[in-house]
């Protein structure tokens, strides 16, 4: 469930006008901006962008980019875009702004988003960057990690409740044979994890646990070959995303806020992309695991307008 | 351009009635069936199926399957289905009814069909078979061929006229370096051929010819490793499909009808899938290359109702 609190009936023109006012003159009234856009859903934000464009012949997204700065600006930018454009931006940053792609983001979109949502993200990506997600991932990665990520993002997975118990058993055995002989690069692992439907894969992973007494993610830790590190981490991330998305997101946020500092990019990504989906459930999982609320953790690890904005998206009035 | 000759205004109910009559009593009036469905486009066939169902509470496709037989039945079955269902059937047969997938068919759909058409075929495939194209291809192939085919069918290619001349040059060099050192399994080959947009890839292949004096398909013949045979044939097929679809289809038909016999499956596939698209151009290319018309070749290599039906689709009254 969504965490944001928004009024049912709003006036896009009045909202656009209030944002315009907050941007004019010396300085910017960030609090006013948060109080509006932090309390609007995707449809309402779209109408505000349209109203702003009509009233002031100016792109609201660009205006906010120029008015705001730092992590706060990045978060607002991702929040004000329509969801699929935002996803395209996040994916592009993940693929291109690092030495190797931030495979976590690629995996999230490939495994947690529905095939139709993933397709919509790919379309938005092409419209924005004039290249395909597939060619960019392929270009910026290598070896087993590349093969795995390209297969993962390329598969238009079957969505349906049909599940083949025979396949679940035999593929659990195939996975176990490969892993127990330390044949971690076995292409069957890539095939099974990257192409099977979520329903089928969950059944296979359950059979694996039943027959071999432990989850496959534990067994994937047994590899000590440094060259396989990223690939195996990607495999484990994928299995987590497929098995339990909320638990996965909780872990992302937990790792992003620790004693060593805060990875704002990850915090922003989870909160902005899940606020209108399942952030409520993620908050519950977070509290259970950490005995501290996510709101409290955010309060401790962030500051200023950025903090105020995240807390608003988390459902604080 | 299309080759079929069809009247603009037809009555789906009258067509359904005439087909029903042709199916009733002793024997079947195949000529009557050909004279109707061989002269109807996709929309008209759809309306006939609907009218038949309404009038007789019976599925026309199933009725025709039970009335007809042999290659004629197979051709009619593929023709009477709606195009994306037909493609799903052809793809499924290509993937599952052989020891290894008939990669030619997979490559045709991946490279000659537009990304949107390929997506529609994937949807029809899932609706019909309750599995994804990707998982079936992955399951029924292995090694480099698998990696290549899964990448190819999975890529939602960018379609646009943008082309990066720098990339065309550098990737022509990458391809040539791999091929000249006989590193045919180099993963960069798979990446470039399976993920780049058609526009970009054609430019790269042209640069290759400019710089290295010969087409890449020729150079791919230099490998003598038997284990690579299918994979390299698939690579060459892909390059042909991307470079010149009509020339590719001409070759498929030419190889399918020779002294050793006739590969009716391939002949049917090309004629049925291209009749409403570019079969006219394929006929022209065929005549140029063979100095005999495609109609004449079909007349020589096929017989009976199957022959009559193919000739009708080829535009004979």
TrEMBL record, chains A, B:
Keyword Cell wall biogenesis/degradation among record annotations: no
Domain notes: A pair of annexin repeats may form one binding site for calcium and phospholipid.
UniProt KW Repeat keyword: yes
Record InterPro entries: Annexin, Annexin_repeat, Annexin_repeat_CS, Annexin_sf, AnnexinD_plant
Record's protein name: Annexin
Keyword annotations of the record: Annexin, Calcium, Calcium/phospholipid-binding, Metal-binding, Repeat
Protein family: Belongs to the annexin family.
């Amino acid at each position: 469930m969504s965490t944001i609190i928004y009024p049912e009936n709003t006036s896009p023109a009045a909202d656009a006008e209030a944002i315009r006012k907050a941007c004019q003159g010396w300085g910017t009234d960030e609090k006013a901006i948060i109080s509006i856009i932090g309390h609007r859903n995707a449809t309402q934000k779209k109408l505000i962008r349209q109203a702003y464009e009509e009233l002031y012949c100016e792109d609201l997204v660009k205006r906010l980019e120029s008015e705001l700065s730092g992590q706060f600006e990045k978060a607002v930018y991702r929040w004000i875009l329509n969801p699929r454009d935002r996803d395209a931006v996040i994916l592009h940053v993940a693929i291109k702004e690092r030495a190797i792609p931030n495979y976590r983001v690629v995996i999230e979109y490939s495994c947690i988003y529905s095939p139709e949502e993933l397709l919509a993200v790919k379309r938005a990506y092409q419209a924005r960057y004039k290249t395909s997600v597939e060619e960019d991932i392929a270009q910026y990665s290598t070896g087993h990690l590349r093969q795995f990520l390209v297969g993962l993002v390329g598969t238009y997975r079957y969505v349906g409740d049909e599940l083949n118990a025979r396949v679940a058993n035999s593929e659990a055995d195939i996975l176990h044979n490969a892993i127990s002989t330390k044949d971690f690069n076995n292409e069957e692992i890539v095939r099974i994890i990257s192409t099977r439907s979520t329903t089928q894969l969950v059944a296979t992973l359950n059979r694996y646990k039943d027959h071999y007494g432990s989850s496959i993610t534990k067994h994937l830790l047994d590899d000590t070959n440094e060259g396989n590190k990223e690939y195996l981490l990607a495999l484990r991330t994928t299995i987590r995303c497929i098995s339990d998305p909320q638990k996965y997101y909780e872990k992302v946020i937990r790792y992003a806020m620790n004693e060593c500092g805060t990875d704002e990019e990850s915090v922003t990504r989870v909160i902005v992309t899940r606020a209108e989906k399942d952030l409520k459930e993620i908050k519950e999982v977070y509290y259970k695991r950490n005995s501290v609320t996510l709101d409290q953790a955010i309060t401790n690890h962030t500051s200023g307008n950025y903090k105020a904005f995240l807390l608003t998206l988390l459902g604080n009035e």
